[in-house]
Specification:
The structure is a single chain. The chain is built from five helices and five strands, in the order αβαβαβαβαβ.
C-alpha cells in the first residue's frame, strides 16, 4: 500500500484504519444493545432458553437443536433433514449440496406443519466474531436456497453457533470440513 502523508501526523492509511475501528466498535455496540433489549422483551423468533448463538433476532435459540444435543451428549444425532457443508471461508451452497437441499425441501413440503431452524456452523479457525458472522451467512444461504425451492420463509429461522459446537475437535482438514455446515432442526 502506498501511504500518503497527511498534515500534522498520520497517513491516509491510519485515518482509514481508525474509521474502520470506529465502525466496528459501533456495530458491536449495536448488536450488544439490540441483543439485550430483545432478551428483556421475551418475544421474538427463537429467543430465550439461555442459549448462546446468534439468530435472526440477534441472540438466543429455541432450546432444541445442536446446543441441546451438545448438553445431552448427543451432538450430531440425525433428523429427517440432512446437513450441507461449505468450503473453507465460504458461504456459497455447493453444487453437490443443492441435491441435499432439494431432498430437504421435498420433505418440508410433504410435512407442511413442520418448521425448521437452520443452524450455521464453522470450523475453529478464525475469531469468535468472524465465525458467528460466517455461520449466520451460511444459515441464510441455506434458507434462501430452500425458499427458491418453494419452502415458505415463515417456516424457517436461522441461528449461528460459529465455532462453538464442533462435531469434530481434531486439528485436521477432514475434521474442519465436518464442522463447516448448515444443520437443520425440525420443530413441529
Amino acid at each position: 500500500m502506498i501511504q500518503t502523508r497527511r498534515g500534522r501526523g498520520g497517513s491516509a492509511a491510519e485515518a482509514i484504519s481508525w474509521r474502520r475501528a470506529a465502525l466496528v466498535a459501533l456495530a458491536v455496540a449495536t448488536l450488544v444493545l439490540s441483543g439485550c433489549s430483545s432478551e428483556k422483551k421475551g418475544g421474538g423468533v427463537g429467543q430465550g432458553q439461555g442459549q448462546q448463538g446468534m439468530n435472526e433476532g440477534g441472540v438466543g435459540g429455541t432450546g432444541s437443536g445442536s446446543l441441546a444435543q451438545f448438553q445431552k451428549g448427543t451432538l450430531g444425532a440425525g433428523g429427517p433433514l440432512s446437513d450441507i457443508h461449505f468450503d473453507y471461508d465460504e458461504y456459497t451452497v455447493r453444487e453437490q449440496d443443492g441435491e441435499i437441499l432439494k431432498t430437504n425441501a421435498d420433505w418440508l413440503q410433504k410435512n407442511a406443519g413442520a418448521k425448521v431452524q437452520i443452524e450455521g456452523h464453522c470450523d475453529d479457525r478464525g475469531s469468535e466474531e468472524y465465525n458467528l458472522a460466517l455461520g449466520a451467512k451460511r444459515a441464510q444461504a441455506a434458507k434462501d436456497y430452500l425458499q427458491t425451492l418453494g419452502v415458505p420463509a415463515d417456516r424457517m429461522s436461522t441461528i449461528s453457533y460459529g465455532k462453538e459446537l464442533p462435531l469434530c475437535t481434531e486439528e485436521t482438514d477432514d475434521c474442519w470440513a465436518q464442522n463447516r455446515r448448515a444443520h437443520f432442526v425440525v420443530n413441529q
